[in-house]
Design a protein that fits this description.
Number of helices of chain B: 15
Radius of gyration of chain B: 26 Å
Order of helices and strands of chain B: HHHEHEEEHHEEHHHHHHHHH
Strand order of the largest sheet of chain A: 10-13-16-15-14-17
Number of strands of chain B: 6
Radius of gyration of chain A: 27 Å
Structural class of chain B: alpha/beta
Shape of chain A: globular
Largest sheet of chain B: 6 strands, mixed
Distance between the termini of chain B: 55 Å
Shape of chain B: elongated
Largest sheet of chain A: 6 strands, antiparallel, barrel
Strand order of the largest sheet of chain B: 1-2-3-4-5-6
Strand content of chain A: 15-25%
Distance between the termini of chain A: 44 Å
Strand content of chain B: 5-15%
Order of helices and strands of chain A: HEEEEHEEEHHEHEHHHHHHHHEEEEEEEE
Helix content of chain B: 40-55%
Oligomer: heterodimer
Number of helices of chain A: 13
């Protein structure tokens, strides 16, 4: 929350609809995503009661478990999903390109799958399902189908990868919308996709508030409100009575009708909402740096497939060493994401300008031939003078980067003089003579900020873990959680 | 001034509202499947004279599971406030025997009731289990039905459960002090949690220190205003009667509710939506008065002295600030101006 958010929330309130906080779209949306809708029973996070899936708006597959608390019936449902999901998810791995960095080269899938879900809770539920399925034995007395285990590992990978800031393999629409729009809602209310959608496009004659109050009643999943489960409860009771103890598909399938009828409207409405929101966002132009992040996503996806092909398993609890590396990777991704978004999008730069982490203005002078030092240490250090309409509160000596070239060399704040109109004249010094880092033209608008997209310094971890970071106990390898 | 106190406390702080609710009020909109799961798990623990619970707690109790004595206070008492008082007395009595080292004293009390004055009114709290090691230590265990997988549970639910145990531990300390024991030594600050492991219902025990939580909750409890003060501060002649009268038509009952809220005010915060059945009513009122609370507490904090969201919008468009608005106004004006400039080229760009 900053003053820009508050200002926009107040304006959104007065207008009665949501306002954009980004001029473009900062996430990739592929033309044919794998869309998933998931419903669970209350208090049962490791199973699915109803699933909806498809690649197109007009192609919704729906299946229900009947009694998801029964292992066989829960797995029957998930196996249906696995048979549809796995081939589509894995197909992208076959078409690869070779990338070479110096004398190091690797292959990377040219495309990657994208899974779209309605909200973060659904994404989390997929992660939980993945945890349950990924470690099931495929032989022995309780053997599970291999496809089910593969589905579990894919879901597990997607959920782990979802922690990477700016990733685009698993798109939760509430996150996407909340990131690109602001409404006069609290954070809690913004978790409802239906309510945020209502604020963005309220029906004619209604304010966003009234439309959202109406729309938020819609159960989007994964855990519907208690009242919806109350309607389902007798249906499940009846289903269990009629099937006895049988999990035989020939017995169970004809009995699923009433439960399917209960879920069909819920899944259908969520499905339409999901595609409406996705398609609307897809209509906005994509930001410049999205491609770089998509490359990273494709690489992560390729590594996941390769790891799987070698029979690799993943831990469910990281070692302290792994945790430190993961944290470093996530922080670096977060830093790059913030810098890229701000440099791609003038609206995203505003919070930085407001917080005096960036300065914006018209370039009034550029002195290319400014020389400093004497004798052999005499170097060329071009100067840029910016007229900022607002007073600039940065200290002299601060390192800034030109937003047109955020991966270039730094500029130092040399001096700040008050301007006649109450603003500031900011003189910046480019810290290299090389023109690979360019200079803005006189008369143009330019922005300099603390945000850089140059790769950060990666400290090496020590060869042996210090005693402070050694695990207290050896963590048991991950196994099935069916007991 | 008195009204201000009332408004501030019309809803208790969020962390307390879910935990201090006396004796398990029916949960707000919970799924029958979730309720069923919780009941099944508790039933499992109580089966065969609490066999599983005794086995689980054997290490804590310092006695073999077969020798552990269990008293179930959930049975044999009426389900009323009177019954709660009787159970509270029985709990105190058992606790006295435990502290005295009575060889026949129980090791485990199922459904112990602890009482404490909250805001000057007696309130009763039902702890799932008190586990005692005679003359050494008394512990509180809470039974929850959310699963523990890979040594982890849902952090949000864990937090709520630990808050709950912390309240019981504080009350237990008060009770022990009342009986002449040393609360710091006799009541552990480590909470016990009994949850199912993995997908099934097999119970498992977890332990965590909660001294920091206990300190925080003690502060909150100390700050709760006295009920009598609130009653004195409320305007005379107010009653929920006309609102609760089901024989009257709905519109008039809602009007009566609005009248009530007009006179004492509401204290809407977004947290209300998850805990209170009346939250949508208060939210509508917050919307009608354009209260900054509608957008969350962060917004309220950033708009000191600004009456409502309309005014915040005016200030962001350069309206002259009144006294008291100046600090927020300068920042709002700058944010508004920068947004207008930056979005001018892209303004109202609608999706293609």
């Amino acid at each position: 929350m900053n003053h820009l958010d508050v200002t926009l929330a107040a304006r959104s309130f007065r207008l009665g609809r949501a306002l954009r906080t980004a001029a473009c779209r900062h996430r990739r949306l592929v033309p044919q995503p794998l869309a998933l809708v998931l419903f669970q029973l209350g208090g049962e996070p490791f199973s699915a009661s109803a699933l909806g899936w498809g690649e197109r708006r007009d192609e919704l597959h729906l299946a229900v478990a009947g009694e998801p608390r029964n292992r066989d019936l829960a797995f029957t449902l998930l196996l249906k999903l696995a048979h549809w999901f796995n081939p589509r998810f894995e197909a992208h791995g076959r078409n690869r390109e070779t990338v070479t960095h110096g004398d190091y080269s690797f292959t990377r899938a040219r495309t990657a799958p994208q899974v779209v879900v309605a909200n973060t809770a659904t994404a989390q539920a997929l992660g939980w399902l993945g945890r349950r399925l990924a470690y099931l034995p495929t032989e022995g007395p309780h053997a599970a189908a291999a496809a089910l285990v593969r589905l579990g590992r894919h879901l597990r990978f997607l959920w782990d990868h979802a922690a990477v800031p700016g990733q685009q393999l698993l798109v939760s629409l509430t996150d996407l919308l909340d990131d690109h729009w602001i409404t006069a809602q609290s954070e809690l209310e913004r978790q409802s996709l239906a309510a945020v959608d209502a604020w963005i496009e309220p029906p004619a004659g209604l304010t966003g508030f009234a439309a959202a109050a109406r729309a938020e009643q819609l159960a989007v999943g994964p855990v519907p409100p208690g009242e919806v489960d109350e309607e389902l409860y007798p249906l499940v009771e009846r289903f269990n009575e009629r099937r006895g103890d049988s999990t035989d598909p020939a017995v169970v399938r004809p009995l699923l009708g009433p439960i399917e009828a209960h879920y069909r409207p819920l899944v259908q409405k969520t499905w339409e909402l999901l595609w409406r929101c996705r398609d609307r966002e897809a209509g906005f132009a994509e930001a410049r740096s999205v491609g770089r992040r998509w490359d990273e996503d494709r690489l992560a996806y390729t590594r996941h497939l390769d790891w799987l092909a070698h029979g690799g398993l993943r831990r469910t609890r990281q070692s302290p060493r792994q945790a430190a590396q993961t944290m470093r990777r996530l922080e670096e991704a977060g830093r790059l994401l913030e810098a890229e978004e701000a440099c791609d999008d003038p609206l995203r730069m505003l919070p930085h300008v407001l917080a005096h982490r960036a300065v914006r203005g018209r370039v009034v002078a550029v002195e290319r031939d400014n020389w400093e030092g004497t004798g052999r240490s005499r170097v060329r250090r071009p100067l840029v003078t910016l007229h900022s309409p607002d007073p600039c509160l940065m200290p002299a000596g601060k390192e800034l980067f030109w937003s047109e070239q955020p991966d270039g060399r730094e500029f130092l704040v040399e001096a700040i003089d008050p301007a006649a109109d109450g603003g500031s004249l900011v003189r910046l010094k480019r810290m290299t003579r090389s023109d690979t880092t360019g200079l803005p033209a006189v008369g143009s608008e330019a922005c300099f900020s603390v945000l850089s997209t140059a790769p950060g310094y990666l400290a090496r971890l020590p060869d042996t873990d210090p005693w402070t970071h050694q695990a207290a106990a050896i963590v048991a390898p991950a196994g099935p959680i069916e007991d | 001034m008195a009204t201000a106190t009332w408004r501030r406390w019309a809803s208790p702080p969020a962390s307390i509202s879910t935990t201090c609710w006396p004796a398990r009020a029916s949960p707000f909109g919970q799924s029958p499947f979730a309720i069923g799961r919780g009941l099944a798990f508790e039933k499992l623990l109580r089966r065969d004279d609490h066999l599983l619970a005794r086995e689980l707690l054997a290490g804590v109790l310092g006695v073999a599971a077969a020798d552990a004595r269990v008293v179930n206070l959930r049975q044999g008492y009426p389900k009323s406030s009177d019954g709660m008082r009787q159970r509270g007395d029985a709990t105190l009595d058992l606790l006295r025997r435990i502290l005295a080292g009575d060889p026949a004293a129980p090791h485990l009390i199922d459904g112990a009731v602890l009482s404490a004055p909250v805001g000057g009114m007696p309130a009763y709290f039902e702890a799932d289990a008190l586990a005692a090691r005679s003359r050494v230590e008394v512990r509180v265990a809470e039974v929850k039905s959310f699963p523990k997988v890979d040594e982890r549970v849902d952090p949000e639910k864990l937090g709520a459960a630990l808050d709950q145990v912390s309240v019981y531990l504080l009350l237990l300390r008060t009770a022990v002090a009342l009986l002449g024991g040393d609360p710091e030594r006799l009541v552990s600050d480590r909470a016990l949690l009994i949850t199912p492991r993995n997908v099934g219902l097999q119970p498992t025990l977890s332990e965590q220190r909660v001294s920091a939580r206990m300190g925080r909750i003690q502060k909150l409890l100390d700050k709760l205003p006295q009920t009598a003060d609130i009653v004195a501060a409320a305007p005379a002649g107010l009653s929920f009667g006309p609102v609760a009268d089901r024989s009257v038509e709905e519109e008039r009952r809602i009007a009566a509710m609005h009248d009530l809220a007009d006179r004492v005010g509401t204290a809407y915060g977004p947290g209300c939506l998850t805990t209170c059945g009346n939250a949508r009513f208060c939210r509508q009122r917050a919307f009608d008065s354009a209260a900054p609370a509608l957008c969350g507490t962060g917004t309220v904090r950033l708009l000191p002295g600004v009456l409502n969201l309309y005014r915040a919008d005016e200030l962001s468009r350069g309206a002259a600030p009144a006294d008291g608005e100046a600090p927020a106004a300068a920042l709002l004006e700058r944010a508004g101006r920068l947004y207008d400039e930056a979005s001018a080229p892209a303004v109202e760009r609608r999706p293609a």
